[in-house]
């Protein structure tokens, strides 16, 4: 059983730092004429989706995951931009380097946010609030970007605190304050509670973290799963003893699914393949790497298992690139053997931090990567089922 006890005398000091309206603010550094204006970044075509919007645009009701066409109706005077994700990645590297000047333990989460372990740094930078202000000033001076910092005894509390620090502020919650701080908040404010879990809890008449923390464990197990209920309930009380450490970069990334009954329908297989490619692509981009090739894994009803792989023309990290390659492998495999499939998997390999190589055959070689990153941003904020690419 996990130890729920907390030693306040040895409380950790964890920062969660988030750059406010990151894409917009980077564009404003490139073009000062954008300052003070409503700016919307994302897909600009008729089927485009908003990735992020400036606070000026948000006042009109524009928000992430909204159709661009709707955003244009709400705020017709806004400046709509497709964005430059290669530029954002370069600025992100500078941002992370600044953070490493203040702590040896920096764990990036995405291009615009990271955790820092600031435990025991009081002699160097003063109290946590003062240290946070120092870091915010360093980021502002070096990059011209506003940052919000949440401070807590754990990743969980720091993350939730940073939402209360926005925009461009600092907010601290100590361990003895965490349960009371969490209690009135909606269950969806707890990291890890997505739309499906939120719906399951709503059916139990649970709408706040305080209600979740004190709910009978039996119904929670049925709603969230036997292995998740107790863990989620501890987190709803603001308890998180997970260590802060950067994940070791994998040599390959893969995902697979086993069907309840064997599937022979090509459309059903393509639908599953698409979801798997998106899962793999999201993990690939969050790792900060690109892949050199993709592979598929198929297991038939008789448990015969095959794998097929293909190298990309140039290293990449876009969902469409992964899907196109995996789909071609699937089509070939189905031609060779048309039996029903029990399991399907997708993987990428040859990972590295290679610079994107431009293909002479592609009129817009970064479009796939940029669109995929915009979708990642929306899913991070609204859940993995909030948006999906159209059928290929």
Automatic annotation (TrEMBL):
Recorded GO CC terms: cytosol
Subcellular location: Cytoplasm
Main localization of the protein described in the UniProt heading: cytoplasm
EC nos: 2.7.7.7
GO term, biological process aspect, one: SOS response
Record-linked Gene3D superfamilies: 3.30.70.270, 3.40.1170.60, 5' to 3' exonuclease, C-terminal subdomain (1.10.150.20), DNA polymerase, Y-family, little finger domain (3.30.1490.100)
Residues at the site labelled Substrate discrimination: 23
Names of the cofactor(s): Mg(2+)
Residue intervals of the UmuC domain: 14-194
Any Pfam family: IMS_C
Single GO term (MF): damaged DNA binding
Record field: catalytic activity: DNA(n) + a 2'-deoxyribonucleoside 5'-triphosphate = DNA(n+1) + diphosphate
Alphabetized UniProt keyword annotations: Cytoplasm, DNA damage, DNA repair, DNA replication, DNA-binding, DNA-directed DNA polymerase, Magnesium, Metal-binding, Mutator protein, Nucleotidyltransferase, Transferase
Binding residues for Mg(2+): 18, 112
Transmembrane segments: none
Active-site residues from the entry: 113
Family: Belongs to the DNA polymerase type-Y family.
The protein's role, per its UniProt record: Poorly processive, error-prone DNA polymerase involved in untargeted mutagenesis. Copies undamaged DNA at stalled replication forks, which arise in vivo from mismatched or misaligned primer ends. These misaligned primers can be extended by PolIV. Exhibits no 3'-5' exonuclease (proofreading) activity. May be involved in translesional synthesis, in conjunction with the beta clamp from PolIII.
Subunit structure and binding partners: Monomer.
Protein name per its UniProtKB record: DNA polymerase IV
């Amino acid at each position: 059983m996990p130890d729920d006890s907390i030693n306040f005398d040895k409380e950790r000091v964890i920062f969660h730092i988030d750059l406010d309206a990151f894409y917009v603010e980077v564009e404003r550094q490139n073009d000062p004429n954008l300052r003070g204006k409503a700016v919307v970044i994302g897909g600009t075509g008729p089927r485009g989706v908003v990735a992020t919007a400036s606070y000026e645009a948000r006042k009109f009701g524009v928000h992430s995951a909204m159709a661009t066409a709707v955003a244009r109706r709400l705020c017709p005077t806004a400046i709509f931009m497709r964005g430059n994700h290669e530029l954002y990645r370069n600025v992100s590297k500078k941002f992370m380097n600044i953070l490493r000047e203040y702590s040896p333990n920096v764990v990036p989460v995405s291009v615009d946010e990271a955790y820092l372990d600031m435990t025991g740094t009081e002699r160097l930078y003063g109290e946590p609030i003062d240290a946070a202000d120092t870091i915010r000033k360093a980021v502002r001076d070096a990059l011209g970007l506003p940052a919000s910092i949440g401070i807590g005894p754990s990743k969980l509390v720091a993350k939730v605190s940073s939402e209360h620090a926005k925009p461009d502020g600092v907010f601290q919650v100590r361990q003895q304050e965490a349960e009371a701080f969490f209690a009135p908040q909606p269950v969806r404010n707890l990291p890890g509670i997505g739309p499906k879990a939120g719906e399951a809890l709503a059916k139990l008449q649970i709408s706040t973290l305080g209600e979740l923390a004190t709910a009978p464990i039996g119904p929670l197990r049925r709603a969230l799963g036997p292995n998740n209920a107790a863990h989620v309930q501890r987190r709803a009380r603001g308890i998180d003893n997970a260590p802060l450490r950067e994940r070791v970069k994998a040599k390959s990334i893969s995902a697979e699914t086993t069907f309840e009954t064997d599937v022979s329908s090509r459309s059903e297989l393509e639908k599953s393949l698409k979801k798997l490619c998106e899962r793999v692509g999201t993990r690939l981009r969050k790792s900060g790497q690109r892949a050199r090739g993709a592979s598929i894994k198929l297991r038939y009803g008789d448990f015969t298992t095959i794998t097929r792989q293909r190298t990309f023309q140039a290293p990449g990290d876009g969902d469409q690139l992964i899907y196109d390659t995996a789909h071609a492998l699937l089509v070939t495999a189905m031609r060779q053997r048309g039996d029903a499939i029990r399991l399907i998997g997708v993987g990428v390999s040859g990972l590295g931090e290679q610079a994107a190589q431009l293909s002479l055959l592609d009129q817009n070689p970064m479009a796939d990567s940029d669109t995929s990153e915009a979708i990642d941003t929306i899913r991070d904020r609204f859940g993995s089922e909030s948006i999906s690419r159209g059928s290929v």
